[in-house]
Amino acid sequence: MVAAEMMAPDKRVSSSTAARAAAPETDWRQLVRPYTEPQVGFAVFQLVTTLAMWVGCLALMFGSLGDIPYGVTLLLALPAGGLAVRLFVLFHDCCHMSFLPSARANELIGTIVGPLVFTSYHHWRLEHNYHHATSGNLDKRGVGDVPTITRGEYEAFSPIKKLGYRLLRNPFLLFSVSAVFTFVVLQRFWGPFATRREKVAVLLTDIAVVAVWGGLMWAVGPMAFLKVVGPMTLVSASSGVWLFYVQHQFPDTYWRHADTWSYKDAALKGSSFYDLPAVLQYFAGNIGFHHIHHLSPKVPNYRLKECHRGVAEFQVKGMTIRDSLACVRVNLIDDETLRPLSFGERSSAA
Question: Which distant-in-sequence residues (6+ apart) come within 8 Å of 187 by Cβ?
C-alpha cells in the first residue's frame, strides 16, 4: 500500500542504459575496464564450492535432528544461511551478465539457481537493473529498492498509512518477518511492469520452488523441514535484506531529483563500502564493495576487492558493522535538503 504511493517507472531501463547515461560525466569506465573480464575457472570453482558447502550444511542440519540438542541445528543455520546469501550473490552476478563471459551460461546458471534462493531470474533481473539505473533518484523510487518516502509525503498520509509505513520501516519487522515474506511470498508474484516473458519466468520459477522445496519436505517430513529450512531461511533472508538496506540507506546517502541526478555520484556517494571482516565478506560475496558494483555491475563479485585495491579513487572510507547500526534510524527524506531523516528528527523539525 505504501509502496504504491511512490513514484513508479515509466519504462524499462537496463544496466546498459544507465552506463550510457553516465558516459559524458567522467572516464570512470576506463578505471573499471581492466576488472570487468570474467574469470571462468574461478567462477566455476566459486559456484561449485558454494553449492557443495551449502548442501553439506543442510545435510548436517538434518543429520543433527534427533539425539543431538536442537541448539546445534540452530548454530549450523548460521553458515547455511550465510552460504545461501553467497549463492544469491552469484545469482545476482548472473543477472548482470558478469559472472561468466557467456550470456547464455549466465542465464542458464541464474535460472537454475533462482528457485534455490526463491527468486525468478528474469523478473528479478528486470527490476534490479531498474534499481541500478535509478538508485538515489528521488523521482524514480519504488522498484527494486527499500520503499522510502519524503517527510512531506509522510505528513500527507492518513494515520493508517503512517502506521503502515512505520511498521514497514521497523527494524525488528523489516529484518525478520518482512525479509522472509519478501523472498518466500512476494517473489512468487510479478510486478506491474513485467512483460509476458517475466510473467512466464515467475510461473516456472514458482513451479520449480514447489518441486525442489516441496520435494524436500515430502522426503524428510514437514516438521524436520521446518526445523532446518525455517531457521536457515530466516538467517539468509534477514542477512540479505540487511546488506541491501545498509548499501543505500545510511545517514549521508545520496538523493537528488532527476534534473540534478548523476549516475556516478549515485554510485560513489549513494552506495556504501561496507568494510566487513574477511569471513563475513566471504559470505556476502564481496557485495560490501557496493560503490564499485553500482558504478560498474560488470565487475564480477570475485574481482571487486581487486578493483578496490587497484584504483585509488575507489578507496573511500568504509562503513564498519558498528557504523552500520545507525542506518536503522534512516526513515525519511527531507524535502528541501534531501538528506535522510529519522522519525525523531522529523518530529523535531515539525
Answer: 118, 119, 120, 124, 205
**CA gap 66, 83 in Å, rounded:** 24
Distance CA 305, CA 192 (A): 36
Is residue 163 classed exposed, middle or buried when 0-12, 13-18 and 19+ CB atoms within 10 A define those classes? Answer: exposed
Distance, CA of 341 to CA of 327 (rounded, Å) = 10
Give which of 247, 254, 221 is closest to 337, Cα–Cα: 254
317-324 LR contacts (CB < 8 Å, sep 24+)? 317/273, 318/273, 318/274, 318/275, 319/246, 319/250, 319/272, 319/273, 319/274, 319/275, 320/275, 321/276, 321/277, 324/246, 324/250, 324/272, 324/274
Q: Could you report the per-residue pLDDT of 99-137, keeping only the tens digit for each?
A: 999 999 999 999 999 999 999 999 999 999 999 999 999
Per DSSP bridges, beta strands 149-150 and 332-333 are: parallel
**Number of domains within the chain:** 1
Q: What is the pLDDT of residues 32-64, one digit of tens each?
A: 999 999 999 999 999 999 999 999 999 999 999
Say which amino acid occupies 263: Y
257 burial level (CB within 10 Å; 0-12, 13-18, 19+): exposed
Asked whether the whole model's pTM tops 0.70, one would answer yes
Contacts (Cβ under 8 Å, ≥6 apart) of 33: none
d(CA 84, CA 79) in angstroms, rounded, equals 8
- For 66-120, give the DSSP string: SSS-HHHHHHHHHHHHHHHHHHHHHHHHHHTT-SSS-HHHHHHHHHHHGGGGT--
Range of the structural domain that residue 133 is part of: 3-349
The number of CA neighbours under 13 Å toward the Cβ of 19 is 14
CB-hemisphere CA count at 13 Å for 238? Answer: 16
CA dihedral for 284, 287, 289, 290, sign (positive or negative): negative
Q: Which three cell numbers mark 182? A: 519478501
